[in-house]
Every structure is written in C-alpha cells, then in structure tokens.
Amino acid sequence: MKAFVLTSFDHAPEFADVPEPEPGPGEVRVRVHATSVNPVDHMIRSGFFRAVQEYRFPAVFGRDFAGVVQTVGDGVTRLREGDEVYGFVKRDYIGDGTFADYVVVPGGFFVAAKPSRLSLQQAGTLAQAGITALECVEAVPSGPGQVVVVNGATGGLGTFAVQIAKARGADVVATARSADRAELLRSLGADYIIDPTQGDLVKLVREAVPEGVDGILRGGGRAASVTNGGVPELMGPIAFANIHSTPSPANLARLTALVDDSGVTPVVADTFRFDDIDTAFDRLLAGGTAGKLAVSLDG
To answer: Of 99, 188, 241, 263, which has the highest C-beta tally within 10 A?
Structure first.
C-alpha cells in the first residue's frame, strides 16, 4: 500500500510502498479515505517525541482518519465490513498511523461510526482537534451562565472549541485578527469578538465582559491554563489541567453527538490530495489558517 513514512530522524518523510496491515483478533482494518494534518503531526515528523516514544521505522505517522471498514478481526461485534467510521490513532509508539491507504485499529478504541451529518472528507478532520477541544472545554466551567474565552479561536482546535462551548450553553469570547475571521466566529456562535492586535488581551476581555470570565483556553493546543504545560509557579491561584486528547469510545460518542445533535461542524480551510501532503504541511507551518487542512486519499 502507499504510505507517507518516516525512515529515520535524519531524513524528511517520504512516500513508500509498505505491506498492508493485517487485523488481529479484536481489530479492524479501515480503508482510509480522508485525514488531516495537525501540529502534533509536524512534531512527530520532526522527532519531537523521540525521548519518550519509540519510532518504529519505517514509521507510518498521522492521527486523524475517516474511511470504510474493510476487514473485521475475530471477536469484533461493534463494527462490520462496509461501515463508515472515523477516529484518531494515538499509540504508545510512533508508527502504524493514518497517512496510508489502510490503518488497523482496535475495534473498541480509536474508532467510531461516522457522524451522519458529515461526509467522509469532513469526518477526516474531526477527531484529533475535536476531542482535544471537547476535553479542553470540559476542563473549564462552560455551562449555561458561564463565560469562556477562546484565544486562537480561528484555528483547527479553536473553531471546534467555540462551537462546543456554545453547545454546552456558555457565552463565548473569541479572538479574531480580521473582519472575515470575526464573521466566521459569529457564524459559529461566538457572542463577543475581540481583536488581540488592538491592545492588551486581558484589558480587551474585561471591556467585553466586565463581570469576568469562568474559563480560558487557547486554540492550537498551547493553553497554559488547560492544556499541556501549566506551570504552577507561574499560574499562581489559577487552576489548570493537563489535557491528553484520549480517543476513547466515550469521548468519540460525545463528539459524535455534538456533531449530529448540536450541529458542531469542522471548518475546512483547504483540501489537499494525498500526493500533495507536503504542501499541506507547508501551509500548516506558515500559520494563519482558519480551520482545518484536510487531506483526501480519494482520487
């Protein structure tokens, strides 16, 4: 099968023909139709995790996927051949990822039935950023009558976080650096839009909501308050939590319900062919993208 792989820490990833993975007991093989590029994928290809995770070269990397179940291993009852599914792969090693024609995953983890409202191409951008956003929003007070600030709101994670916070009943203060991005956030349900280039962010938030806010997160996975890296000596009395983006059945089910029942929808800035995945990474690293960058393995 065709795959985008890492062969060493000293070489850029490349396309290669690798053996098709075979599902064992309790596993399913999925024909991947769509995926996306995420900041963590760049960190993986740059060797960022080499001190804490094994890289199994040639390592197929990539996390997001949407596709069709092709083969079902013994003991799998939740999924059947032909089911349209989505999810993301997060193993304790780097390899057996989703930048490939096929991926094998546990039948009871990493994978769920595709939300009925989404196409496979949309669903391929959903799980990694969507679950991260869901866990971030749930980590702060974000129910009716509460106010959540989403800084970096137009990114892949941020666009999901705005929608999920609104679906939970919160008022949302979102940041945007241009009029068109402000309009995008209003269409996603943001109640207050502030431009962080116009002054001190804390002052701007206080002007928008003088009564104060209940939680803050930063899109892009770099929130000191709710995602990796809250430093106690810098945080003072501010509570923070580490978010681990767990692709569990419960998290996928909650995310699916938010899509099908509450209208949460991926914002896709652009779609690239699999052959052009390097260009997708270039776009990701250039920054400034509103929403997600999708990669299609169809055609």
So the answer is: 99
Q: Are 90 and 247 in contact (CB under 8 A)?
A: yes
In this prediction, residue 218 carries a pLDDT of 78
- Read off the pLDDT band of 230 (50, 70, 90): low
% the chain with pLDDT above 70: 92
Sorted by sequence, the CB contacts under 8 Å of residue 249 that are 6+ apart come out as: 108, 109, 112
Cα 55 from Cα 49, distance rounded (Å):
9
Q: What is the DSSP string of 228-244?
A: TT--HHHHTT-------
User: What integer pLDDT is reported at residue 237 of this predicted model?
Assistant: 64
pTM over 0.85: yes
Q: Span 214-241, mean pLDDT?
A: 59
Q: What are phi and psi of 22, to 5 degrees?
A: -105, 130
Q: Are the CB atoms for 111 and 75 separated by under 8 Å?
A: no
Mean pLDDT value across the chain: 93
DSSP output for the chain: -EEEEE--TTS--EEEE-PPP---TTEEEEEEEEEEE-HHHHHHHTTTTTTTSEE-SSEE---EEEEEEEEE-TT--S--TT-EEEEE---SEE-S-SSBSEEEEETTSSEEEPPTTS-HHHHTTTHHHHHHHHHHHHHS--STT-EEEEETTTBHHHHHHHHHHHHTT-EEEEE-SSHHHHHHHHHHT-SEEE-GGGS-HHHHHHHH-TT--SEEEETTT--TTTSTT--HHHHTT-----------HHHHHHHHHHHHHH-----EEEEEEGGGHHHHHHHHHH----BEEEEE---
Q: Is the peptide bond before 266 cis (omega within 30 degrees of 0)?
A: no
- Between CA 135 and CA 251 the distance in angstroms is 8
Return the C-alpha torsion angle 97, 103, 106, 110, nearest 10.
Answer: 60
